[in-house]
Structure formats: structure tokens, C-alpha cells
């Protein structure tokens, strides 16, 4: 008589494919997952609590460390929230610089995702290809902000540094190069039979489920819902650019893959228009009081980060420090659906599903 | 010469000569492993826009692997407290020994071969299967869930792929009429079996990659899923033994493919002035390069897809190939 | 069998340990309470279970006191903040600036006087003039700011473009509820004119359900949920969005600070599951009927709720 037993398996927090310190306690029968419980909080640094004792400009470096793969959007969401409260005017040039840096960051973030996802699936080379291109973006952002990962670039009312001479030209030159590489990625991976077998039909959910679970970003768009805050609730100057919302209708890992790859292309389109329209001269910092004191009240703004909808809630008492600061962190919300997706899958699919959600633990844990 | 030694009287002198020759082979194999690892890293580096090792041992990193092995030797030999100690120690030995044993029957040239046995091909496949026992032992003895899962995967994979592997070479055996590797090589003088048996070659090659636990079939040690699979608890030289076994198998399997499908030491027409050993080495390196190329290119296949592919695609194709070969042979004999 | 026994033993042991810990904690609290009795502004961290009734009573009393005190404080603060700041404060600053300028000028004059034999009067005069000019400039700047503020305040408030939408929401709510279930409803101009609805605690869940299911509202997407400690009360802020109607709403509910308890809406929007855990973890808000309420960030053994305003950082190792 053969007796089988369920096995409790601890995936993480030190596991190569959890993309940080994410822990997953799964119950498996053979390789089949029958129950999964995510455990988070290993990277919780209490950003929101720390922020309550900091002035707004001092909080910006902390936002860099939430989603450290796309720090520009995080910078922006905080500045945008404060600017919305204070009804500040942002100079043209600053707006363009913000858009350009944010879209560059989006491409860099998607590249990291693309590389690491393929690494999760066992292909080692794409990772290095992706990092070659990412390195170029990082160098561009380094040149303008002085940081490679944590930029601390945006300020309430504008940006900290103007673009150095020739920077816009470099961005201009990068766009066609990236396009070419993107086509190469397609040849390298997108048509690979093994890859397609690994992602098609994996981690599938419907549009209704996606909405119920508060998914956003590519995780929502892969179900066919054309929802992109850049288009639907335009902030900054996104309404000046023509681009499309990338969707897929499969709702699986393959759909998410397609959406992200297409988004790189759309970001390049935005970049192209932005560097074309970039004002020759102008201020990069608006007229902002020396000490930023938003009036008493509260605000909640949301923008589109590479990972989804990032939001910022500020309750102000009219002081230099926020009374309460809260980030709506897309990875945190997106990760919730994971246990539901994992039940009935095997170990190999676990990695494919987790990777496709695209989490950054700094953001999940806050 | 070696053949003569085997059949000669069992004197101490003969024993020592034989022992020395074996030691020579071991050294050749170890040298190969050292530079195969380096070659793999270099080739991977070039394909992935990197340099690969370039510090230790000059511009080409020629001593990199030596340094790595030295490091492994002086590492602490850690055995988990909850591990099954005797089995834990035994497992790398079980895994490595057959890897070296199979080399005995490979005819590197028409003269350099240790044992010319009648069922050479069968011997290879039978003995190489023992390694899986070592892997399963390692997985079990480690008392680690990831290791166990890796071991189970390895076992399942071995069963699924050993069969198409054997089935695919049956076509070759049919054409040769022998399982002796020397006979198989000599039968290829009129044309390598890769030309007469292309289907068999493709099936054999895929199954061989799976046998070697290499990408895209590296499920047993899938880093992103099982951390390191069956040897997750091994450190130092015990770990090195698994690595060694893996690369020796790569050596053996490439040699086998060269012998069975690429005509062994036989030269290309009109190029007979180049010695057989060089021909063997060249063909052998092409196979090795192909394996490395595979590793850089492919993502990992999923366990259930692997089984499906093995049983539903490779096995029927291999059987169809046997049928086809049999028909072909009869048809040729008819005229 | 033996495994089961073992497990039971383990469980019992765990329970014992827990009980011991509980006892210890209670004792600690008692001590704290004693020491804090006089200065009761510091409200106690609410621990759920206490067997001691007296203790609870005391606690309640203390809490009430604390609340009252906090309320008073806050009111005072607000009064100060809103009334005195724009006028008196600025006048003060202006005066300050002038005084500083004057002092500077005087100091300069003194210094000049010391060196009088070397330099002429003209320099002295220059210095004085410069100081005066500075002071004047400062005063002007202050004046400008006050003027700007005044104009801002006096600007007539145009009705928000979102007002009709809010009205529509309110009408739908009125249709479904006989009595007034809303505490407040307004347009939050600072938050991109989002219609904001503050609902009474007991109707929070049913209104949330209505928001999701009513075809005219149909908020199928929960964008954000979080809690805030406003010192006199706790608040849950929910930002909802309707893909169907392309509209959003902010739903708020206020609750008692000492025993913050609210219905979970995780059964309506599964996406509210983790945010509610977060609010429970960091603020100590209890969500009833939550599928799996646990301390998601800090772990079950953490003492206190960090995002509360009265949180005392507690670390054994420091």
C-alpha cells in the first residue's frame, strides 16, 4: 500500500526566483500545489511612518526605494500629489523632462522584467541582452540625475536638474537603436516554442476577476480591458502625445508578456514625440515657496507606473510634514491574486506565474 | 595494445601498465573537464555579450577552472545534521563512478580503446543509468525538499528518455548488425549514420541532452525553481563530484554521438592524411559546441511537457524509425 | 496517533506560552496605567482580551479622558492654526523682520562709530540707508504674500464640474435608504475634484455593496483602501472606480479611535483583502468578517501599531 503525504514547502525568502525577499508557503502533493500562502513584510521599512516626520522634499528619496526599478514614476507620484494640493504650475521644460525620464524608466523596468522572467523560465541569455539596453538607459538617467537606481530627480514644482548639453540628442539616438533591439528580442524569444508552451494558458484569469482583485497595469490590460491612466485620466502632459493602450485578450502570462513588450514600443513612441517637442529653453523649476506647506486637506492621485496604478494619498494639516502619507503600491495589490492562481499548478508554473505578475518587493512591503 | 593487455596473462606488470593507462585517461578526462568548463563559460560569454573568465591564467582565463577546483578542495565539507550521513557521502561516488566507467568502451581511435566488447552500446546505456541512482540517493539523503523534488524529477526524466534513446539507436544497430562500437564506426565508411539515419540522430540528440540534464532539460537542477535541485545541500568537493560527473557525461555522450553518428575517427573523403585522433577531436568538439549553444539559447521545458514530449513524440518517432529502417534494409537486400 | 498527540502537546504548550505572554502583557499594562494615570493624555494601546473587568473599566475611563483631552487639544490646535496663523503670525513675522533690520542697522552704525576717526560720515549714512532699504524690501515681500493670500481667499468659489455627479450619487443613495446614512458629502477639490462621501459606520458595508452592484454606480474597481489615525477618530478611505461609467468616488467612514471596528469589504472586492490587513497591522483597525485578518507586514508578535500617532517605538535590542 503506497501512502502519499502532502508536503509543506517554504519557497523563499531566500529563493532565486522570488525577486527579493518574498516568501511563499505552499502545500504540495508531489509537484502539485494544493494551497499557497504568501508571507510578505521582510522588506517593510515603514516608509509611511518615516514620512510623517519629514518634509516633502525629504520624502522623495524614500519613494526611490519603493519601486526601485522605476524610481522616476515614484518620484513623480509624490510630487504630483503635492502639486495637485497646492495647485502649482509646472514649467513646460520640466514637464517634458519628467515625461522623458519616466518613459525611459518604464522601458528600463520592462527590460528588467523581460530579462528576469526569461531567467525564471531557464533561459539565461535574454537577461544579459536586456541589461545591455537597460545599462544605456541607466547611463542616460545617471547623466541627468546623478543616480543609477535611486534618482531623487523630481521636486515639487519641477525637476532638480536641467538636461545636460546633448542629452536630448542621446535620447533621440537611443530610440531607433532600442527599436532594432526590440525586434531582435522578438526573434530570440517571442517565437520560441518552448517559451510559448511555458506561458500560454498559465495563470489565467478573467477580466472580472482582474477587476475584483484590484489588479492594474499589464496584469489588468492582459484581460482585454484598455485601461491606462496615461490615456484615460491624463496627468502631466500625456494628453499631448499619441500612443496606444496595449492590450491582450488572453488574460494569461503570455498576454502579460505581449502587453509589456508592446508597451516598450509605445513608450518609445512617446519618447520620440517628447524629444521632438522638447522646448529649447525655459525653467525647470516652477515658482514654489521655499518651504512647501500644502494647505489643510487631503488628496489622492494615481498615475500609471510600469507595474500598474501607483497612487499617493496625502493628508495635510498645513504643515511642512504630511500628517499621513500613503502610497497605493501596485505590486502589493497585484500580488493578492497569487494564491488563487497557484492552486492546482505545479512548481514550474509557480515561477512562471509569479514572474508574470512582475512584483518589486520594495514596493510590496512598503 | 590495450586489447593485447586484456587478453594477456594477469601479471603485476600488466596490471600496472593497464592501471597507468587508465590513469592517463582519467587525467585526459579531468583535463577535458577543466577546459570544457572554461570553454562553456567562454562560449556562453561570447554569446551573451560578456568576456567570460579573463583574469586567472592570462587573457583567456586558462587557469580559472583550476583555481575554482582548488577553492572547492579547501572548502568546508558541510553535512546537514538531519541528513542520512552514509548515503550522503556515498551518493557522489555512485553518481561519478559510472560516468567514468562508460568511457572504457568508447573507441577514440582505431587503437585507443580500453574494452572492445560486443555489446558496447548496450553497456554504455545500462551503466549510465546507474548515475540516476546516485542522484536519487543524493536527493533523498540530503533531507531537503528541494533536493528530493530534484531527484524525483531526475528519475522520472531518466525513465522517459532512456527509452527513446535506446530505440533511436536500434536503427543504427539494424544497419550495422552489431552493437560493437568498432563495428559501428567501420560500417560508416560508406557514409556516416547521420546521413542514413537522420531521424535517429535527431531523436538521439534530444534524448541525449535530456540524459545529460542540460538546458532545456535541466529540470533536476532547475535553479529558478528548485534552487539547485538534488545537490542543493552539497558543498566543496562532494559538490564538485556531481559537477565532474555531469561534465564527464558530457564528454562521454559527445564521444558516443561522434562514434555512432559522425563516423568516429573516420576522415572525410580525400582528407585521410589527417590522423584519426584529430578527426575524432574535431567532430567531438562540434558536438560539445552544439550542447553549449543549446544551453545559451533555450528556456527550460516544464516537467509535464517534458514527459509528454518524451512519450508522445520521441518514442513514436523512434519506433517509426526502426520500422522504416527495417523496411529499407529489406528493400535494399531485395535488389 | 503519536503525531497527533505531539501536535496536541505542541498546541497546548503554545497556548500556555501565549497565556503567559498575555498575563505578562497585562501586568505590564497595569504598571503603565498606574504610572500614566495622572498624565492620561497617552491613550493605551488597545489589547483585545482582558479578563480583569476592573482593568477594563479603568481603561475605558482613561481612554475617555484621553479622548476628551486629545479632542480639546486638537480643537485648540485647529483654532490656533486656522485663525491666528494668517494674520497674527504674519504680522509677527513682519515685525520680526523689521526689528532684525533695525538691529542690524544699529549694529552697523555702532561699528561705524567706533571707526569714525578713520572714515567719514558718508559711509555711516550709506549703511543706514542700506539697512533701511533691506527692511523696506522685507516688509514689501511680506505684504505681497498677505495680499496674495487674501485674494485667494476672496475668490468666488465656482461650482465643481463634478458636482452633478455627486448629486447623482446622493440621489441614488437616497432612493435606497429611508433615513440619512451619510455623515457628509462634498467635492474634494484638492484631490482632482473627486466626489467624497462619508458614511455612517453601521451602513458602511451595505453602502459599499450598493456602490458595487447598482447599475448607476457600478464601482467594480477598488483602487485604494487605507486607514488614517486622526487622533480623535480613525478613518478608512476607500477610492473606488467604475470602468463602466468612467467615474470615481472616495468613500470614507469614521470610527471610534479606542475600539476601531468596521465591517470588512473584502467579500465585495477581494482586492480589499491585503489593504485591510495592512490597516489592521499598522493601525489596529479590526475588520469584522475578514477572511484572513493577520499582521501582514510586521508579524503577529509586534507590539503596537506604528501608524497610530501615539505609537512608541519599542525595540528590545535598542
What does this structure look like?
The complex is a heterotrimer of chains A (366), B (335) and C (318). Chain A has 366 residues and is of the alpha+beta class. Chain A has helices at 47-51, 56-64, 71-86, 92-120, 125-145, 167-190, 193-199, 207-212, 218-221, 229-232, 253-277, 330-334, 338-342, 347-357, 361-365, and strands spanning 7-11, 23-29, 32-39, 154-155, 158-159, 297-305, 308-316, 324-328. Chain A has 15 helices and eight strands. Chain B is an all-alpha fold and 335 residues long. Chain B has 14 helices and no strands. Chain C has helices spanning 2-36, 53-114, 121-154, 163-176, 204-213, 273-283; strands at 182-188, 194-199, 221-229, 233-242, 247-256, 261-263, 286-288. The radius of gyration of chain C is 29 Å and the shape is elongated. The longest helix of chain C is centred in the N-terminal third of the chain and has 62 residues, at 53-114. Among the domains of chain C are: 3-38 and 52-103; 163-288, 2-Layer Sandwich (Beta Polymerase, domain 2), CATH 3.30.460.80. In chain C, the strands form two sheets. In chain C, strands 1-2-5-4-3 form a five-stranded mixed beta sheet. Chain C is of the alpha/beta class. The chains are: A alpha+beta (366), B mainly alpha (335), C alpha/beta (318). The A-C interface holds A 40-41, 44, 46, 48-49, 84-85, 208, 211-215, 225, 227, 232, 294-302, 309, 311, 313, 315, 317-318, 323-324, 326, 328, 332-333, 335-337, 365-366 and C 81-82, 85, 188, 190-192, 194, 220-224, 226, 228-230, 237, 239, 243, 246, 250, 269-275, 278, 282, 296-299, 306-307, 311.
Q: Between the first and last Cα atoms of chain A, what is the distance in angstroms?
A: 50 Å
Question: What is the assembly state of the chains in this entry?
Answer: heterotrimer
Roughly what percent helix of chain A?
40-55%
Instruction: Give the topology string of chain B: H per helix, E per strand.
Output: HHHHHHHHHHHHHH
Radius of gyration of chain A: 21 Å
Query: Domains counted in the coordinates of chain B: how many?
Result: 2
Would you tell me the overall average pLDDT of chain B? 83
How many H/I helices of chain A?
15
Amino acid at each position: 500500500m503506497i501512502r502519499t503525504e502532502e508536503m509543506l514547502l517554504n519557497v523563499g525568502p531566500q529563493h532565486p526566483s522570488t525577486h527579493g525577499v518574498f516568501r511563499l508557503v505552499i502545500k504540495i502533493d508531489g509537484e502539485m500545489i494544493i494551497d499557497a500562502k504568501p508571507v510578505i513584510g521582510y522588506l517593510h521599512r515603514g516608509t509611511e511612518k518615516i514620512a510623517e516626520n519629514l518634509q516633502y522634499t525629504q520624502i522623495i528619496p524614500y519613494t526611490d526605494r519603493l519601486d526601485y526599478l522605476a524610481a522616476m514614476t515614484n518620484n513623480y507620484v509624490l510630487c504630483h500629489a503635492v502639486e495637485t494640493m497646492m495647485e502649482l504650475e509646472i514649467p513646460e521644460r520640466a514637464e517634458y523632462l519628467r515625461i522623458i525620464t519616466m518613459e525611459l524608466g518604464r522601458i528600463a523596468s520592462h527590460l528588467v522584467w523581460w530579462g528576469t522572467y526569461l531567467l525564471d523560465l531557464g533561459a539565461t541569455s535574454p537577461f544579459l541582452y536586456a541589461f545591455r539596453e537597460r545599462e544605456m538607459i541607466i547611463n542616460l538617467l545617471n547623466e541627468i540625475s546623478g543616480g543609477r537606481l535611486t534618482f531623487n530627480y523630481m521636486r515639487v514644482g519641477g525637476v532638480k536638474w536641467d538636461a545636460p548639453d546633448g542629452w536630448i540628442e542621446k535620447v533621440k539616438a537611443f530610440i531607433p537603436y532600442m527599436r532594432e533591439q526590440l525586434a531582435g528580442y522578438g526573434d530570440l524569444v517571442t517565437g520560441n516554442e518552448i517559451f510559448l508552451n511555458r506561458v500560454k494558458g498559465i495563470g489565467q484569469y478573467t477580466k472580472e476577476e482582474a477587476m475584483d482583485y484590484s489588479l492594474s497595469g499589464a496584469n489588468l490590460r492582459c484581460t482585454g480591458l484598455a485601461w491606462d491612466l496615461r490615456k484615460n485620466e491624463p496627468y502631466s502632459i500625456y494628453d499631448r502625445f499619441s500612443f496606444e493602450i496595449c492590450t491582450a485578450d488572453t488574460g494569461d502570462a503570455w498576454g502579460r508578456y505581449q502587453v509589456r513588450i508592446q508597451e516598450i514600443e509605445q513608450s518609445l513612441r512617446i519618447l520620440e514625440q517628447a524629444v521632438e517637442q522638447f522646448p529649447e529653453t525655459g525653467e525647470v523649476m516652477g515658482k514654489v515657496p521655499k518651504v512647501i506647506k500644502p494647505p489643510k486637506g487631503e488628496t489622492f492621485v494615481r498615475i500609471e507606473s510600469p507595474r500598474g496604478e501607483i497612487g499617493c494619498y496625502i493628508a495635510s494639516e498645513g504643515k511642512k510634514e504630511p500628517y499621513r502619507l500613503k502610497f497605493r503600491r501596485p505590486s502589493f495589490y497585484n500580488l493578492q491574486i497569487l494564491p488563487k492562481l497557484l492552486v492546482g499548478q505545479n512548481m514550474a508554473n509557480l515561477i512562471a506565474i509569479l514572474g508574470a505578475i512582475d512584483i518589486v518587493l520594495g514596493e510590496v512591503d512598503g | 595494445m590495450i586489447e593485447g593487455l586484456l587478453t594477456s596473462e594477469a601479471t603485476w606488470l600488466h596490471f600496472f601498465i593497464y592501471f597507468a593507462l587508465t590513469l592517463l585517461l582519467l587525467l585526459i578526462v579531468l583535463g577535458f573537464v577543466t577546459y570544457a568548463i572554461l570553454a562553456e563559460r567562454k562560449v556562453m560569454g561570447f554569446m551573451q555579450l560578456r568576456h567570460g573568465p579573463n583574469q586567472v591564467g592570462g587573457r583567456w582565463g586558462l587557469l580559472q577552472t583550476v583555481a575554482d577546483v582548488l577553492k572547492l578542495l579547501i572548502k568546508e565539507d558541510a553535512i546537514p545534521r538531519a541528513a542520512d550521513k552514509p548515503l550522503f557521502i556515498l551518493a557522489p561516488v555512485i553518481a561519478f563512478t559510472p560516468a567514468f566507467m562508460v568511457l572504457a568502451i568508447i573507441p577514440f581511435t582505431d587503437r585507443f580503446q580500453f574494452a572492445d566488447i560486443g555489446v558496447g552500446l548496450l553497456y554504455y546505456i545500462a551503466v549510465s543509468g546507474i548515475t540516476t541512482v546516485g542522484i536519487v540517493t543524493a536527493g533523498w539523503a540530503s533531507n531537503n525538499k528541494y533536493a528530493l523534488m530534484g531527484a524525483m524529477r531526475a528519475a522520472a526524466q531518466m525513465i522517459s528518455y532512456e527509452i527513446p534513446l535506446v530505440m533511436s539507436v536500434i536503427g543504427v544497430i539494424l544497419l550495422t548488425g552489431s552493437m560493437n562500437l568498432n563495428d559501428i564506426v567501420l560500417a560508416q565508411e560508406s557514409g556516416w549514420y547521420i546521413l542514413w539515419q537522420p531521424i535517429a540522430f535527431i531523436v538521439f540528440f534530444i534524448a541525449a541532452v535530456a540524459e545529460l540534464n542540460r538546458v532545456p532539460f535541466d529540470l533536476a537542477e532547475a535553479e529558478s525553481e528548485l534552487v539547485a535541485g538534488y545537490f542543493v545541500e552539497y558543498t566543496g568537493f562532494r559538490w564538485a563530484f556531481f559537477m565532474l560527473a555531469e561534465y564527464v557525461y558530457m564528454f562521454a555522450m559527445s564521444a558516443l554521438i561522434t562514434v555512432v553518428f559522425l563516423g568516429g575517427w573516420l576522415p572525410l573523403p580525400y582528407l585521410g592524411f589527417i590522423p584519426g585522433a584529430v578527426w575524432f577531436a574535431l567532430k567531438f568538439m562540434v558536438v560539445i559546441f552544439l550542447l553549449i549553444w543549446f544551453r545559451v539559447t533555450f528556456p527550460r521545458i516544464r516537467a509535464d511537457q517534458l514527459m509528454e514530449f518524451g512519450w508522445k513524440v520521441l518514442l513514436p518517432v523512434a519506433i517509426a524509425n526502426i520500422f522504416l529502417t527495417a523496411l529499407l534494409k529489406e528493400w535494399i537486400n531485395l535488389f | 496517533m503519536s503525531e497527533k498527540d505531539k501536535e496536541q502537546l505542541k498546541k497546548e504548550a503554545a497556548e500556555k506560552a501565549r497565556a503567559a505572554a498575555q498575563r505578562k502583557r497585562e501586568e505590564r499594562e497595569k504598571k503603565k496605567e498606574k504610572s500614566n494615570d495622572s498624565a492620561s493624555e497617552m491613550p493605551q494601546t488597545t489589547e483585545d482580551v482582558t479578563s480583569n473587568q476592573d482593568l477594563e473599566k479603568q481603561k475605558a475611563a482613561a481612554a475617555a479622558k484621553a479622548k476628551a483631552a486629545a479632542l480639546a487639544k486638537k480643537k485648540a490646535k485647529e483654532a490656533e492654526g486656522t485663525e491666528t496663523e494668517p494674520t497674527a503670525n504674519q504680522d509677527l513675522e513682519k515685525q520680526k523682520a523689521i526689528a532684525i533690520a533695525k538691529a542690524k542697522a544699529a549694529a552697523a552704525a555702532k561699528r561705524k562709530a567706533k571707526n569714525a576717526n578713520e572714515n567719514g560720515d558718508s559711509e555711516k549714512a550709506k549703511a543706514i540707508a542700506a539697512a533701511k532699504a533691506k527692511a523696506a524690501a522685507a516688509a514689501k515681500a511680506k505684504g505681497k504674500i498677505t495680499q496674495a493670500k487674501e485674494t485667494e481667499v476672496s475668490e468666488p468659489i465656482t461650482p465643481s464640474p463634478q458636482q452633478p455627479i455627486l448629486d447623482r450619487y446622493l440621489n441614488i443613495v437616497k432612493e435606497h435608504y429611508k433615513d440619512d446614512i451619510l455623515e457628509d458629502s462634498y467635492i474634494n477639490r484638492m484631490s482632482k475634484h473627486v466626489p467624497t462621501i462619508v458614511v455612517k459606520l453601521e451602513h458602511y458595508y451595505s453602502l459599499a455593496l450598493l456602490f458595487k452592484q447598482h447599475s448607476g454606480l457600478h464601482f467594480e474597481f477598488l483602487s485604494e483602501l487605507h486607514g488614517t489615525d486622526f487622533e480623535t477618530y480613525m478613518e478608512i478611505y476607500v477610492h473606488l472606480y467604475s470602468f463602466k461609467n468612467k467615474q470615481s468616488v472616495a468613500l470614507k467612514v469614521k470610527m471610534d479611535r479606542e475600539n476601531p471596528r468596521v465591517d470588512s469589504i473584502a467579500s465585495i472586492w477581494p482586492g480589499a483583502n491585503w489593504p485591510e490587513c495592512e490597516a489592521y497591522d499598522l493601525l489596529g483597525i479590526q475588520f469584522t468578517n475578514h477572511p484572513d485578518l493577520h499582521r501582514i507586514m510586521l508579524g503577529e508578535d509586534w507590539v503596537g501599531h506604528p501608524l497610530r500617532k501615539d505609537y512608541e517605538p519599542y525595540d528590545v535590542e535598542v
